[in-house]
Design a protein that fits this description.
Radius of gyration: 17 Å
Oligomer: single chain
Low-confidence stretches: 1-27
Shape: globular
Structural class: mainly beta
Mean pLDDT: 82
Number of helices: 2
Order of helices and strands: HEEEEEEEEEEEEH
Number of strands: 12
């Protein structure tokens, strides 16, 4: 796991250097959302950092470490986006992931689309591949988020991926249902998410649960960390 943390930290530094000039002419605002808890029977740690300028443009950086069912994974993702009217965000993402000492990379377009004042849809599509002789993946992801007046918000979503691999090919699917609650007047909240992944005749159900801390960021308006190979990691 220490090796995974080191690799992910290097990815974070490289992404920061590569995108440092994106908003040099703007007066940026920053925010962060941090999660810590359990994923299945193992630990889970994640952080999403967002920077929005006056242009209006923004970037979001994700860093995530998970270890479940003896399959450890480190992820680093970068989202570059523009802001439209009424909370619309659209742009592109780049993902680098280390799964069981193998590197996976993916990229594609994404959008956060307000359906109502309390409901958001997130749409994402992408192409990815594993280094070496690993699988090539074409995937699509959709999420719906609804915020309640009580500070509770729910999210339902899924991923559909077409996997082309010499060893095992087919369609990988994942469905998820999540609930989060922000404590009124405090930056701390709790979250729980139940997901089911299916691929190559295998099913796996995983519970992710823990605490979250919001530092100047509305977590309902952030892009999710891409997880196109979640079904393959189990």
């Amino acid at each position: 796991m220490l090796r995974l943390i080191f690799k992910t930290a290097l990815l974070a530094i490289a992404a920061s250097i590569g995108c440092g000039a994106v908003m040099t002419n703007a007066a940026p605002t920053f925010g962060a959302d941090i999660e810590a808890g359990r994923l299945g029977g193992s630990g889970y740690l994640a952080a999403r950092i967002v920077q929005i300028g006056d242009d209006p443009r923004g970037l979001q950086f994700d860093l995530e470490l998970t270890e479940a069912n003896e399959a450890a994974e480190a992820r680093a993702a970068l989202h570059l986006f523009a802001l439209g009217a009424q909370g619309l965000r659209y742009g592109a993402f780049v993902l680098a992931s280390d799964l069981a000492e193998r590197t996976f990379a993916a990229a594609g377009p994404e959008v956060l689309l307000p359906l109502r004042t309390d409901t958001l849809a997130e749409l994402r599509a992408g192409l990815g591949g594993m280094a070496g002789a690993g699988p090539d993946i074409v995937f699509a992801e959709i999420s719906l988020r609804h915020t309640f007046a009580s500070g509770l918000f729910s999210e339902v979503g899924g991923v559909l991926a077409d996997v082309d691999d010499p060893v095992r090919s087919g369609t990988a699917r994942q469905a998820r249902l999540g609930l989060s609650y922000a404590i009124p007047g405090a930056p701390v909240g709790v979250f729980a998410e139940l997901s089911e992944a299916r691929f190559d005749g295998h099913d796996d159900t995983t519970l992710r649960i823990g605490l979250s801390i919001a530092l100047g960021a509305d977590r309902t308006g952030l892009f999710r960390t891409p997880r196109p190979i979640a079904a393959l990691a189990r």
